[in-house]
Amino acid sequence: MERETIERLAMDRMLGELNEDAATLFEAYLAEHAEARQWAEPMMQVCTRTRDAIAQKTQPADTVARPASVRLPWIDRRTLARWAAVIAIAAGLGVAIGRRSTPSPTQKHETVIVRAAPREAGPEGWRRVLSESEQGFWQTKAVAMRQSQPREIPPSTEPGLGLWDRYRQFRKERSHEEIHQKL
Amino acid sequence: MARTFPAEFGRFWRQTCGKVRAYMFCASNSASDADDLAQECYLRAFRNWDRFDGRGSRQAWLFAIARNTQADWFRKRGRDARLLEQGRLAAGSEAAAPDLDDTEALWQAVGRLRDEHREIVHLRFAADLSYDQIAQMLGVPVGTVRSRLHRALKAIREQLEEHENGT
Asked: What pTM did the predictor assign?
């Protein structure tokens, strides 16, 4: 074959334009003919070099010189993962131990018992309440209840007093009690 | 009415965007211009997506649009841009020839090719089009593509040999 034919076939071979059979035949021919191989090789080389050079020149700049990722020296993924695992295990242990442990003796719950006053705090009811606790709030409550209860106007011991006089006497006694309580 | 973005176009873009950008870079020799040109090319392709008649390959159709986009870009910027670029390449090669690495030497060798040869090299090596696709795109026979590419590669080889021999 002529030199130009060999070169063209070599070019086609390098660019993948020869089918399988043609490529096999061409390589067999080159293996047998040293002179043809000498003509083909420079063309194959220039194909490879052109392809590489154009690929190198035309690839985007960000793929040519991609800067190394900035990483602080003490931050390493493995180190971070290790510390995250340690913290997770410690938190889990803390929760588990906390659930199993009994409350501490110094930490007693204060129970506030609110006693409901009897609805109809008759004399018996209040007596019962006061006998149970006669101090603090209930003492005050008892006094207040006692004062709020309607009192019967006692019959006058003095003869000749009218209803108005008896009422004034009652108010007087009551005001004395109030003053006494305030003091 | 807003036009919906066809999923097929998205897939096509993913398959070809690297090649289109490389092809545009070969023409403009500038990364930012290549990005602008590629964007303009895909905009045109999107607008005319439905006009593809199904004859030949979609890639050849796209690179025909890319070629027209390049032509419009050069027309808009004036021929000075291209001439300036070629002059810069030639001047650079003369000044720094002994120190050029392989890639740069070859890049400059491609830049000094005749227009029709350089275009074939760009379409084959940057756009990665087959002989058939290039032929369809340029409207020439496959044999013409093959012979032009052969001549282009021979010219590159000769320039490289000159460079390596220091002449």
From this structure: 0.59
